[in-house]
Amino acid sequence: MVSSQAPPALVIPQLIVGLGNPEPKYEQTRHNIGFSAIDALARAWKIPLAENRKFQGIYGEGIGAKGEKIRLLKPLTYMNLSGQAIKAVTDWYKLPPESVLVIYDDMDLPPGRLRLRLSGSAGGHNGMKSAIAHLGTQNFPRLRIGIGKPPKQINGNSETNTVSYVLGKFSQKETQIMSEVLQLVVEAVELSLKQGVEKAMSLYNNRTVAEIK
Questions:
Q1: d(Cα 213, Cα 72) in Å, to the nearest integer?
Q2: pLDDT tens for residues 153-192?
Q3: Which of 42, 126, 185, 212 is most buried, by the most CB atoms less than 10 A from its CB?
Q4: Contact in structure between 78 and 167 (CB atoms under 8 Å)
Q5: Nearest alpha-carbon partner for 118 in 145, 139, 104, 96
Q6: Which residues does the chain have with pLDDT short of 50?
Q7: How far apart are CA 68 and CA 174, in angstroms?
Q8: Which residue is catalytic, options 31, 71, 125, 144?
Q9: Could you tell me the CA-to-CA distances from 58 to 1, 35, 75, 92, 94 in Å, in that order?
Q10: In terms of CATH architecture, what is 15-212?
Q11: Please, are residues 66 and 194 in contact by the beta-carbon 8 Å criterion?
Q12: Which sequence spans correspond to the domains of the chain?
């Protein structure tokens, strides 16, 4: 007997958002790895990026491998208001939340690791808290890029230490790792566009940059 159940619909991103903070002082910092990911995608796909005031961000669009429209966004609202820019784009193009892929930094993952998920909580990340609040759901894909935890300081203020760590720049060794990670990000996102986020999850969630050296 043939099952009448339809296969689950593929989750294919239409808008890819990288989270970060504007201003030159935040460039190349750990908290801005989402911005770096969008820059890497724009370079790989030759999509020009420019400020779009209507969308409160740096925005660009191009055509994907299957002829579909791909949109890239770096919100300029500062991290904790990122959802405003995301909502501006989804409202304008009438995009469903599940078509939004958000890329951001994660201290719980070591440098060199990626983690794709179809949904989930903000996990304490202010940019994601804003995205969830503005989209009105947790059910949208996200790609977390590991930045690791700050080294423990003796008698130091752990909260201050955390802030200075995430807003600090990568070390020379970390920068080398991150350039390889960003290549993995491009590959994982390209696979998400062609075969869906779940397929990319199965192939990239257990990869580390050490394996591709």
A1: 29
A2: 545 566 668 888 999 999 888 999 999 999 999 999 999 9
A3: 185
A4: no
A5: 139
A6: 1-3, 154, 212-213
A7: 34
A8: 31
A9: 52, 10, 6, 15, 19
A10: 3-Layer(aba) Sandwich (3.40)
A11: yes
A12: 15-212
